[in-house]
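Collaboration report, partner site 2.

Our partner group contributed sequences for two proteins of shared interest, and the home lab folded both. The records are reproduced in the order in which they were received, starting with the first partner submission.
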Amino acid sequence: MAVKEGVRGSTLLGAAIVIASMLGAPSARADATCIAAYEQAQTLRKDGKPAAAKAQASICAKEACPALLTKDCNKWLAELETIIPSVVLDPRAPTGGLRADVRVKLDGVALTEKIDGRPIVVEPGSHTFLFEADGAAPVTRTLMIREGEKNKKITVTLAPVADAGPVERPIPLGVWVFGGVSVAALATSAVFAIDGLGKKSDLDECKPRCSPDDVDAMSTRFTFADVALGAGVMAGAATLYLFLTRPTAVGAEATQPPPATSTGTLRPVPFAAPLPGGGAMGFSARF
């Protein structure tokens, strides 16, 4: 096959043309551009780049080039045409319609700014096609294009990018519940503490002949105040935890975990409450 001749043969041919030109043969005038294209066409074909080889062969096939070159170059053009692959870009909207307003890059280099349905010549080998369009998520396809593969259709679907909307962090109900418990418990603690201080003031006047019942009443008030204070602190801590770890919502959709079922995991829930003669605090377990 003439396309596969070595560079040495083309160099000898170029030298022959130069000699002929020096002897005065007008039809064999040496042309450096033609000779370079002649050599490049052979080298590129050997390197597996028939499209680039065809571009060079079309240069040395012109009538302005020496006849010794144009004969081979025209022959190569016909041979290369049969093996150069081509692709047809076919980006689609989710509805199935063809999108023409799509930009495509081939191996990181701009290939086309608009889809017109016509075949596009590419070199054989593995290529990565990147499809981009306004309002759509980019799509990448990596394909093996083989020699002689004509009009290979590359179909992709460009899904629209949904408008995420404002990002919000709604306050969960637990914040209000535990916040209310905390405020009520702290207020209760303050009431009992003030009452206890009042009784302590009365006992200071009757020392050391105070009634044991009055002493017990004062102690009870301070006990209630301490329990209510502990309950308020616990509820306040729970309020702060639930507020800081509240889920994020995008638009109307929140990233909350699914409702717990009987097959879910145990979730500890803090609780605190004053009781007559004391109080209670801790955690309850729920599914």
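Second partner submission, folded after the first:
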Amino acid sequence: MRALAVPATALLTLVVAGSAHADFRRWDFTYGQVPTNPAAGRINTITTEFDADTNRFLWDVSFDVSSVVTRGFWLAVSPGPNPKGHPGELAIMYFDATNLGDDMTVTPKLTIYNYNGIGNSSSFFDGSPAAGTQSPDRIFSSLDAGASSSILQLSATDTGNTRRFVVELDASIVQNHTPLYPNPQGDDWTGLAFGSKIGIWFSHFGGLNTAYGTDPANPNYNYLTQWSYTNHGWLDGANFNTQLVPTPGALALVAAAGLLARRRR
């Protein structure tokens, strides 16, 4: 029995349709796209990516610091809702570039915790929104000697009036974390993940002062003991639409299908 030939145009359509897998998502921001507060430096651009197949997470942000010098940030993301008010579901990272001077590139400090859902900096010393102060739920510290296996890129760069902060992680240690204080409503832990939608709670700071201490339970880990600041800017929002990211192999298939279509024509 003779096999049916697939038209080249149909083949191209099928390949393009499968060229981006639904687990690799990206969101881009440029100044003016959504409301922000520039009190600690104007946010120029943001690119964030999450690949659920590999747990690769990227946050790449640049600031105009001609008026106020940005020294660091905290960040929580969700698969849609604004992260505030969602304890025990999400991770919060603290990015510390207080040691960055003009025209220098340094390795900043990064610590990650279970976000307690409160709209302030307290997750690094209080792990739960319950009354009183509970021990923080510590997940990751770049000051740990074994942290390099999770860090793909961690950088802070100053080029005059612009500062760029980059966090790129194999976030498996975050995604596989079991919260010390689970969500009271039973919602699942999502860590640093997002999908077709992203919710963002991003705050950046000028006049930042930080300090670190040894975890009494494990002297090989060092975490925040101080996070204070004089200037506070932000970008908050819910349900921003993300983009599918094509995989390199799929792009090659698209190119091959396009070539086949041209030859048949």
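Feedback sent to the partner group on the second submission included the following. The mean pLDDT is 87. The chain has two domains: 1-19+248-265, 24-246.
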